[in-house]
Specification:
Blueprint (H helix, E strand, L loop, with lengths): L2 H7 L6 H12 L7 H10 L6 H13 L3 E5 L5 E5 L6 E5 L5 E4 L2 H13 L10 E4 L2 H8 L1
Parallel strand pairs: 3-5
Antiparallel strand pairs: 1-2, 3-4
Helix pairs in contact: 3-4
């Protein structure tokens, strides 16, 4: 599906800023970007879109299910493209590296705990904080 179709299918009018921001997330699909990151990357590419517009578009994309929003340790919202597949996150508290993972055993255990407590899981987010391997190596030197 192309970006124009994706915007229209989500009830969003096709505008230059929306197309540029959606394209940016597709070209940075493995990253978790803040509004400031989006602004900086667009500026580096010679594209000037105001910060207020960026925040508005990110919120619209999140509401439309195009992007997923996360609040990691920094407390600052970061966004990633919604690829339609669930995953969890490991976050380095030193360098802020984010590693995505999916573990069927963890998913099954969460469902079991919810069921034991009379819940049916409709959504969840698992963030694990630690020190990544690179930062651990630096600590030893």
């Amino acid at each position: 599906m192309n970006n124009i179709t994706q915007l229209k299918d989500n009830g969003l009018k096709v505008t230059g800023p929306r197309l540029k921001i959606l394209d940016l997330f597709e070209t940075h699909s493995e990253e978790h970007l803040s509004a400031e990151d989006v602004y900086r990357i667009l500026l580096e590419d010679g594209i000037e879109i105001g910060v207020a517009t960026i925040y508005r578009v990110l919120t619209q994309f999140e509401q439309a299910g195009i992007l997923l929003r996360h609040y990691f340790e920094s407390g600052k919202a970061v966004y990633e493209l919604n690829k339609g597949e669930h995953h969890d996150h490991l976050v380095c508290v030193k360098c802020n590296t984010i590693t995505e993972f999916h573990n069927p055993e963890i998913e099954a255990l969460q469902d079991k705990i919810a069921k034991e407590n009379g819940y049916r899981v409709v959504d969840h987010a698992l963030y694990m904080y630690g020190v990544c391997g690179n930062c651990q190596k630096k600590e030893k030197h």
